[in-house]
Amino acid sequence: MQTNRAKEKLNSGEAALGTFMGLGSPSVAELLSQVGLDFLVIETEHNGLDSAEIEHMLMAIKGTDTVPIVRVPSHEQVFIQRALDMGAMGVIAPMLRTAAEAEALVSATRYPPHGIRGWGPMRASQYTIDNDDYIKRANDNIIVAALLETTEAVANLEEITSVPGLDALYLGMWDLCFNMGFNPMEMPFPETDAVIEYAAEIGKKNGVAIGIGSTTPEELKQRMDQGLTFLGFGPDYSLVLNAVRAGVDVFHGSEQGS
Q1: Is the dihedral of CA 199, 204, 210, 216 positive or negative?
Q2: What is the DSSP letter of 153?
Q3: Which of 32, 161, 216, 257 is least crowded, fewest Cβ atoms below 10 Å from its Cβ?
Q4: Is 56 designated active site?
Q5: Predicted TM-score (pTM) of this structure
């Protein structure tokens, strides 16, 4: 089983950089896995990807040092197990609210006696070729993460980050804004900034990496300076959009000046 370098970084307090991928393209996944990112997150909560398409994206990432993670659509065990069996080396579950949910999430990623994951890793164990190594290492070699998106989760953050086996929490700022009664299009707010600061503090105290997304290099640097370590740059469609807009703006600016 491939060693999960991203997990090692996060658990040692180092920062890890990745990109969320919403376009559902194996070609984009293959490209991004070649540029030095620590992890890639395949989005399955907010798009129409089916299992075969997820598997093709996982195949595209294989053979690189970039760790493939799947953002599962819910906390249901079947989604978590399926993602791991197809070869994901981590999962991110949405809308985590309580320590009990965090414990159930960790359990779904672990084989007995440490959890409830059923055996049948398929691609993950190279179709049984790697069974022995996989069963020995999988429990401790998979990133277990969740999205922090509600005021309930913020209130329970001390207990959540005390759950053994939870590696990281990723701040979902748009849903958090909605949950707090704010329009996310008008960020930043002092109240949400306070949540980011609090989460970074509690995460560092309890050894859980706290992450957030950035769409520009300047914002990424700001998040690193805040002590956040599970860092997203993108998502893929924002990177494409920003690059195209920059070119279009240059084109129209030159056109007007001629």
Answers
A1: positive
A2: H
A3: 257
A4: no
A5: 0.96
